[in-house]
Amino acid sequence: MTDSEIIEVIGKYPDLVADAEKAWKIAKLERERSEALSYFRLKAQTADEKVTEKWLENKVRTDEEVHKAKLDEIVKESEYNRLYEKLMSAKKMASLRAAF
Fold first, then answer.
1. Are 24 and 83 in contact, with CB atoms under 8 Å apart?
2. Higher local confidence (pLDDT), 83 or 96
3. Using CA of residue 65, residue 70, residue 75, residue 80, what is the dihedral sign?
4. Which terminus of the chain has fewer Cβ atoms in its 10 Å neighbourhood, N or C?
5. Mean pLDDT across the stretch 51-59?
6. pTM
7. CA–CA gap between residue 37 and residue 89 (Å, rounded)
8. How far is it, in rounded angstroms, from Cα 14 to Cα 98?
9. What whole-number distance in Å separates Cα of residue 37 and Cα of residue 50?
10. What residues make up the domain containing 26?
11. Measured between alpha carbons, how far is residue 94 from residues 11, 21, 66, 88 in Å?
12. pLDDT of residue 97
């Protein structure tokens, strides 16, 4: 990275990292909400049937909405990590250049 790229990353990326972390945490909450809704929906549908908790957990895990929410959370977490690592790399390069 050139000095100007380092300065740009250090100036711009903290906000990008914060936005990415926010998006990831929102996706996590949405995934948890989707799992809970799926669980209660299945519990209500099978109220008069004899089903185990393990069966319900597996049905929730394979629910299409829950699966999509998990994938979205993974994508958002990956984006956060990518931006965070780039910011930390630029900060490390800046500190190494300042040391010499």
1. no
2. 83
3. positive
4. C
5. 95
6. 0.85
7. 40
8. 20
9. 20
10. 3-99
11. 12, 23, 42, 10
12. 82
Residues 6+ apart with CB under 8 A from 28: 73, 77
Checking if the pLDDT of 100 tops 70, the result is: no
pLDDT in tens, 1-26: 888 899 999 999 999 999 999 999 99
Q: What are the residues whose beta carbons fall under 8 Å from the beta carbon of 93, sequence distance 6 or more?
A: 1, 6
Contact residues for 85 (Cβ-Cβ < 8 A; gap 6+): none
d(CA 99, CA 5): 18
Structure tokens at 9: 């990353």
Taking the C-alpha atoms of residue 4 and residue 92, their distance in angstroms, rounded to an integer, is 15
Cβ atoms of residues 17 and 84 within 8 Å: yes
* Total domain count, the chain: 1
